[in-house]
Amino acid sequence: MALVVQKYGGSSVADADGIKRVARRVVDTKKAGNDVVVIVSAMGDTTDDLLDLAGQVTPTPPPRELDMLLTAGERMSAALLAMATMQLGVQARSFTGSQAGVITTEQHGDARIIDITPSRITSALAEGDIAIIAGFQGVSQSTKDITTLGRGASDTTAVALAAAMGADVCEIYTDVDGVFTADPRIVPTARKIDAISYEEMLEMAASGAKVLHLRCVEYARRYGVTVHVRSSFSTKTGTWVTADPATLATAQRSTNSGVRGADEQGEQMEQAIISGVAHDRSEAKITVVGVPDKPGKAAAIFEALAAAEINLDMIVQNVSAAATGLTDVSFTLPKTDGKTAIKALEKAKADVGFDSLQYDDQIGKVSLIGAGMRSHPGVSARFFAALAATGVNIEMISTSEIRISVVTRAEDVDTAVRAVHTAFGLDSEQVEAVVYGGTGR
Amino acid sequence: MALVVQKYGGSSVADADGIKRVARRVVDTKKAGNDVVVIVSAMGDTTDDLLDLAGQVTPTPPPRELDMLLTAGERMSAALLAMATMQLGVQARSFTGSQAGVITTEQHGDARIIDITPSRITSALAEGDIAIIAGFQGVSQSTKDITTLGRGASDTTAVALAAAMGADVCEIYTDVDGVFTADPRIVPTARKIDAISYEEMLEMAASGAKVLHLRCVEYARRYGVTVHVRSSFSTKTGTWVTADPATLATAQRSTNSGVRGADEQGEQMEQAIISGVAHDRSEAKITVVGVPDKPGKAAAIFEALAAAEINLDMIVQNVSAAATGLTDVSFTLPKTDGKTAIKALEKAKADVGFDSLQYDDQIGKVSLIGAGMRSHPGVSARFFAALAATGVNIEMISTSEIRISVVTRAEDVDTAVRAVHTAFGLDSEQVEAVVYGGTGR
Fold first, then answer.
1. Which residue, A154, A183, A265, A403, could crosslink A135 as a Cys pair with Cβ 3.0–4.6 Å?
2. Residue of chain B minimizing CA distance to A80
3. Alpha-carbon distance B163 to B261, whole Å?
4. Do B83 and A62 touch (CB under 8 A)?
5. Alpha carbon of A411 to those of A281, A408, B199: distances in Å?
C-alpha cells in the first residue's frame, strides 16, 4: 500500500468551504487505496492576523510566547479538517507537531528540524485512520516548548515527514496548477512544467519562484523525496520534482529546443535545455564606492556583513581605476536586511576606508534556469541578445552551471521576463495557466 | 509571601486593550509582594466563533477534534497576556492546561478534574515568574488527549489550582463589581454583598445568579478556598466567598434586619439574615396530567426521566382528587432538556398510564436566599406577602433551609424580584451597581 503525504497551504483552507473541499480530496486519495498523512497550514490569513494581534499588545513579542500564539492557527485547521473528513465517513485524527514527533532546535520563530519520530502517526495509519498534522510547528528537544519553524516551513515539514516515513510521494497542494516556465501573471503564455530536477527547482526557488520554498526543495533533494506540486482546485497532474525528471517526460512536454532553433520538430531525446524564467523584486543593491584596491579590503567588507548575519546574493567588483587605485564593490541582498547592512558598513568605514555607500531598492533580478545549458554553448549569448533587443539595461551578471541571472531596473522586469521566455521558445500557443488567486502559496 | 491565583474571563480580555489592562492588574498584584498565578479564558466571543466555524464544517463535530479546536482560544489569550506582562517589564510564561498539570477524565467537552500536579507552575514561581495558564482545558489521564472541562470551567480550574497550591485567595475577575443582592439590571438599587458563605453562594448560583458557576463554588467549599469575586475594571473590593463571612463583615455591610423591621439601627452581631434575591428564566415546566394515585406511578415517571439523564429542579405533586383518584405531577427542568424529557415521558406513557403532558416554557423562578432564615420564623410569610401585594401569582413553591423559591410567570419575574428586594430592606439609598456590559461572566 502506497503512503502519500499531502500538504495543503493556507489558501487551500481559507474557509469552511475550502476545508470541505480539501477533505474530499483527502478522502479520495484514501479510497484509491493509499495510506494518507496530511500536513495543513493555518486558514487563510490567520497567521498574519495573530501576528497583528500580538503587535497590538507589544512591539516586541517574546519568541516563546509568539510561538505559543501562532501555533493556535494550525491547530485549528488540523482539527477542522479532521472533522470534515470524519463527516465524509472516514476516520481521521488531528495531531500537533509535537504529537507527530517533529523534534526541533529551540530557536523560536525559526527552529530547524532535528529529527522526526512519527510513532503516533504510524500507529494511527495502522489503525486505518488518516493522520492530519498541524504544520509549521514542532517541539524543542531541549526545552520541551512548542516551536515554529519559520515562514514557508509547512512544505518542509511535509517533505521531512515523507522522508522519515519513506512515503512514495509528497504532494504539495497550492492554488496554482504547478511550477510554470515563468510567473503566469507576467507571462500569460507560460507553460506548466511536467517534471523538473531538484537542482533546477532549487535555482528557480532561489531566483524568485515562489511556488516551492527553497528549504523544502533542499530537504527533498537531500533525502530523495519525490515531490508533486499541484492545485487543490483541480485533479490535473502538476509538476513532479525529482532526481531524474527525464524518466517522467510525457509526450506533452515542452519540446523547446533552445539554441537549435524554435522551429525544430520531433521528440526531445534529452531533458529540455531550459526549464524556465524566474524573477525577483525582493532585493536591493548596495554599492560600496571607492574601496582602496588593496588586499584585505574587500574581505573586511564581507566580514562586517557576515558579522551582522546578512545573507548576500550577487556580488560584483569592478576593475579598479588605474589612476585612483580605487574600486567599487556591489552586492545584492534582501530589502529587509538593507538597514542592518548599511549600519554594519558604516561601522566598518574607518577600517575599510571607502568613500561612500549607495543604496538602490529599485532593482529586479531575472534568471534563466536550465540543466541543459551546461552542455549547450550559446545560451548566454541568446539570453543577452533577447534583453538587448528590448532595450533593457543589464546592471549585474551572475551565473552558475544551470542558471544565468541579471540585475535590471525593477520596472523592466516584466519586459525582460517576457522577452527571454519568447526567445527560448517557451511560449505556449495559448494561455495555459489558471491563476486562482493568492500568491501561489 | 502570599500566593494569589487570579482568573480573568472572556469579557475582561475581549481585545488588545483588555489584555493590556489585565496585564497591569497582574503586575500590580506581583509588585505588591505576591506570587501570582493567572488562569485566563479565551478572548471575547472566541469560543462561540470557533464553535460556529466547526458547525460550518460538520453538524456533528467529533468531541476529540472539537476539544483540539476550542483549546486554541485559551492558548491564544494566555500567550498574549504573557506578552503584555513582559512588555511591562515583569517575567511571565504561558502554559497550556496540560503543561500546568490539570489531569482530567477523558470525557471530551465535559471532562472532570481528577488531579492537579502543578510542578511546572511551582518551578516558574520559584524563578520569580508569573505563571499564566490557559483555562477551560486539561489533559486526559487515560488517552493523553487535550480535553475541555465544560462551559464555565475556567472558574473551577482557578479554584482547583488554588486548592492544589494552597493559595491564600482565588480572585475571580469579571465585569461586575461582585455578587449583588439582586441582578442590578432588574433592581438598580441592589447592593454589592461584601461577604457570603459557600452555602448561600451555592444557593444563589443554583437559583440563577450567574456571577459564579455552581461547580466552582462547590469546589471552593469542599477544599476551603477563599474566593474573591471582583471587577477587572476597578480596584474596589468585591464579594468574599468563604466559610465564615461574618468575620469579614465590615461597617458598610447591609444591616438589613429581616423580619425585625427595616428601621432597626445598630451593628449586626450576627450575619445578615438575607443575602439576596436570585431569578432564573432558563427553566420550563412539565406537568404530567392525570397520574393514577397508586404506589410506584410517580417513581416510574422519575425513573424514565433519570434514564434520559434529565436534571430536575423543583417537583410538585398535588393531592389527588378523591373523585378521580388521579393527580398531577409537575416539575421544572432546563429548557434545553425539554424535548428529551417529553420524549422520555411519551415512551413511559403506557407504563405510567397518565392522561396527557403539558409543556410550559414561560415560567420564571424567584428565590430568596439567606443563611439567617433558618433561625428566623416569619421570613416565608413576609416573602409571600410581598408577592401577593404586587399581584404576582405563585405557581410552585420549593424551599431549603436557607432558600425559598417560587415559580411565577416569566413576565412577572422582574416585578417579583423588586418587590421581595424591597420587602427585606435590601434596597440601598442610591444606585450602587456599575454594570460594564456582558452577562457578568
1. A154
2. B54
3. 41
4. yes
5. 10, 8, 76
